[in-house]
């Protein structure tokens, strides 16, 4: 939503649980969370009054992002190392007769990139990066479905739908109708961290909160979930910078 009184783009989210209007600034967006009955005019006035705070928060977030080490390489060329399921695997780039860039994971040890002949050298890196992202998203669908098939039947935690999304501040979510969204960047984390996030969102099918009962259900699936949650807290900022 674009406020008429503030030259900043922000998203408005209404919440039945919100008692007051608040602003959340993350790496990819400014979100305004407001109670259901607060008028948009009051919300716009509130955001306008908080303009200086928002701009300061944006600078703080940008500073943290810039100071966070990236997992991804600066260029996608032969010999570059790509984060994948908690490891860093090298790229082997070869020329091919294919019409598009193809990615293959060989022997679980390296990525083979088949690059069409005739492409300008200065476009190689971006095209390989884009192909890797598409490949990771497809892999995420398969890995997530396998984990859902493994964990969902135990306590009848069956989602209505599963979507793989690109997100800069959330690992996953479970909607009111049990639609689960998961961040494809989890493919850069260790398999146990990915499994924890899938289980976390499945458990929200039964408990739409973070109550003691919710965490007990998570622990019933993954007794050691706390160490995987800790890994995400410690390394999540680097993972969220993406490929």
Structural class category: alpha/beta
- Spatial sequence of strands, sheet with the most strands: 4-5-7-6
Largest sheet: 4 strands, mixed
What percentage of amino acids are in beta strands? 15-25%
Number of domains: 3
Can you tell me about this structure?
The protein contains 6 helices and 10 strands. With 243 residues, the protein is an alpha/beta fold. It has 3 domains: 11-67, no CATH class; 81-132, no CATH class; 140-240, Metalloproteases ("zincins"), catalytic domain (Zincin-like, 2-Layer Sandwich). A 4-stranded mixed beta sheet has the order 4-5-7-6, covered by helices on one side. It has a 3-stranded mixed beta sheet with strand order 1-3-2. A hairpin with a 3-residue loop joins strand 6 and strand 7 (110-116). Helix 3 (124-151) crosses helix 4, helix 4 packs across helix 5 and helix 4 packs across helix 6. The longest helix is centred in the middle third of the chain and has 28 residues, at 124-151. It is globular.
Write a brief structural summary.
This protein has 243 residues and is an alpha/beta fold.
From the structure above, extract its key features:
Zincin-like, 3-stranded mixed sheet, globular, 10 strands, alpha/beta, 243 residues, 3 domains
Topology:
Blueprint: E1 11-15, E2 22-25, E3 30-35, H1 40-49, H2 51-67, E4 81-84, E5 87-96, E6 102-106, E7 110-116, H3 124-151, E8 161-165, E9 172-174, E10 179-183, H4 191-203, H5 212-221, H6 225-240
Parallel strand pairs: 1-3, 5-7, 8-10
Antiparallel strand pairs: 2-3, 4-5, 6-7, 9-10
């Amino acid at each position: 939503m674009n406020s008429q009184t503030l030259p900043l783009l922000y998203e408005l989210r209404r919440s039945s649980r919100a008692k007051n209007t608040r602003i959340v600034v993350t790496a990819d967006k400014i979100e305004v969370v407001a109670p259901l009955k607060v008028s948009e005019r009051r919300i716009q006035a509130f955001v306008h009054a908080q303009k200086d705070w928002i701009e300061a928060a944006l600078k703080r977030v940008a500073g943290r992002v810039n100071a966070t080490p990236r997992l991804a390489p600066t260029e996608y060329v032969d010999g570059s190392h790509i984060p994948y399921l908690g490891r860093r695997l090298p790229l082997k780039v070869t020329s091919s007769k294919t019409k598009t860039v193809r990615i293959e994971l060989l022997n679980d040890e390296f990525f083979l990139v088949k690059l069409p002949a005739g492409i300008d050298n200065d476009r190689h890196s971006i095209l390989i990066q884009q192909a890797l992202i598409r490949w990771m998203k497809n892999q995420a669908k398969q890995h997530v479905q396998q984990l859902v098939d493994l964990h969902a039947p135990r306590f009848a935690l069956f989602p209505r739908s599963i979507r793989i999304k690109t997100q800069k501040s959330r690992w996953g979510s479970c909607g009111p109708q049990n639609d689960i969204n998961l961040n494809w960047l989890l493919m850069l984390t260790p398999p146990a961290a990915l499994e924890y996030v899938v289980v976390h969102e499945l458990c929200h099918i039964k408990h739409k909160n973070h109550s003691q009962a919710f965490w007990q259900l998570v622990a019933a699936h993954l007794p050691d979930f706390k160490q995987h949650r800790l890994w995400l807290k410690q390394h999540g900022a680097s993972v969220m910078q993406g490929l």
